Structures
1.
Amino acid sequence: MDTQDRPVAPLHQPSSTARPRRRQLVATAGASLATTLAAALTSPLTRSAHAQQATGKAIRLIVPYPAGGGTDALARTIAPELADTLGQPVIIDNRPGANGIIGSDAVARSKPDGSTFLLTIASHTINPLLYTKLPYDNDNDLVPVTLVAEYPFVLVVHPALPVKSAKEFIALARKRKGEVTYASSGNGSGPHLGMELLAAMADIDLIHVPYKGASPATADLLGGQVQAMLNNFLASASLIRAGRLRPLAVTSLKRSAAMPELPTLAESALPGFEVNGWYGLFAPRGTSPAAATALQEAVAKAMRRPAVAERLAGDGAVPVTNSPAAFAKFLRADSEKWAKVIKRAKLAPETL
């Protein structure tokens, strides 16, 4: 997949299976928990957890996305460090589906005994804005523990697209009004709304092609079925080095240490533009402050470990590990920001 000499397919219109749908929201399907847990039982993380002499009940860290994704990878990186610090086994429980809603609901329904936590991403603040009714109360049933880290996205295009900068991309979109397509990992995802914010600020009209995950979206971008995408560094770096994707800019206000030579969208085309993904920890309502604080402190310690720092660097991520109060304030600001983007893009909420 990373071979430089592989010929690049020419651009063409999105396939019927991709079904470009700019406005309609589609919930992703759930995956088999039994299959995920079977894989987890053979993982180094789980073997490490079972090998420990636990001083208390095992901690279940629910990841509302499939095994192998960015959130899952981070969970499996920090879990052994958390287990060492807390003296308890830490087990990863993948509950994918519905843009993170299935896993979040599982945590919201869990006993608040300090043994179950949620590791999720920005969809947590976006979902209540996109669906008329969630199976849980986003503001009350899930308690903020800590913002783990923030990370930027990189705007990448198919090499056949005749642009080499964000300014040129915007100019092309204005010239080819309603013709330039972009992929996302799903309706309501950070990359989706990030591109909607770009389109709004640049006053251009782009065609959204949602996929059920970043992997199939990236595959169609490589094949030329779509022309652009906001992607994470971890998924893009090797493809960029191989010349199979062309990077135009990063979405943070400051340049990323992962690709310092790449300008930001704010400096190169759209002053003030900023879109960051993030990882955050939550607990069920009623979890004791002592249990939440213990996990927050363990995460802060884990962020200083070399293995975790290396994993974050690969994603261009910056560790945060703030207090529950600071995280709650961050969530309110994030929700307000995306509410404005959704309103400008005229994205109508759907019922699950």
2.
Amino acid sequence: MSAVNRAAVEAVLRQYTDPYLNQDPVSAGCVRAIDIQGDRVAVQLELGYAAALFKNGWAQMLQIAIEGLDGVSSAKVEVRSVIAPHKAQEQIPGLANVKNIVAVASGKGGVGKSTTAANLALALSREGARVGILDADIYGPSQGVMFGIAEGTRPKIKDQKWFVPLESHGIQVMSMAFLTDDNTPMVWRGPMVSGALLQLITQTAWDDLDYLVIDMPPGTGDIQLTLAQKVPVAGAVIVTTPQDLALLDAKKGVEMFRKVNIPVLGVVENMAVHICSNCGHAEHLFGEGGGQKLAAQYDVELLASLPLSMLIREQADGGKPTVIAEPESQIAMVYQELARHVGARIVLQEAQSQAMPSITVSDD
């Protein structure tokens, strides 16, 4: 029996690709330790994204592979998640306790953006992250309903300066709906709305969040520009349907985020297919393949494709979105995949930005 060494263990690890980072653990820089004691091997891996439902299976797969090495009698692989803060976060004191901000946006309304934001937040939480959600849709806030928070519930005030976010299903939730009457329309001009959004973001006492998901209003107006210019957003998720009109507006959303230097993490396609509950017939009511075409056009990832489902709507309206209403369902698993992909894309974006050389211009 030949003696095993670090190079042999790394060679085995290089044969397996992390499906979210699209790299092997060694190339991705995930290996924190390789300890070899005779014929026993212990490996520690560190993922930069939340992956509680994935890491045990990943560890087991790598363990079996290492135990197949000549000279190894037993192997142990430990995988943990350590989520790093976005490098610009510390610029705003009110966001010092928030590591990463993810904007969920759409070019037009009615494409399931708020439902996606709610399920994304819950899925990130199930993956082991500390998560908050901010309802930035000032004119039509809906996250309070989706998280089952009773009408008229108000946040507490801390030190006469901070809103204490409400908590539901383990998520810290803040919305303009908590500060106004549900039946009173927000008849505000752009600057007032932008000011209210900034106040909600920076004067909420977020409690040590790995991710803050922001449910954006539809469109590419004042609120989107304010967010881009004033808040260090780690990345944006664009939600669309396969319909040509929705795709046209989604393209504008992608272009807007690119112009203000916010990375587009990928596209989520809602209402991709309808499956009849009576006969099982599948029909593409809003067109087919639109999300994939949009992702390909802008060289971003199609993060998830979800069906037109009455259950998704009913569960969100009932205050228990799909991820917690039916956590083992096929649709919930799609949201879990979405959460892991979003977290991994942020890690890749950070690595890419750090690899870019800084350019300075002098008068010499």
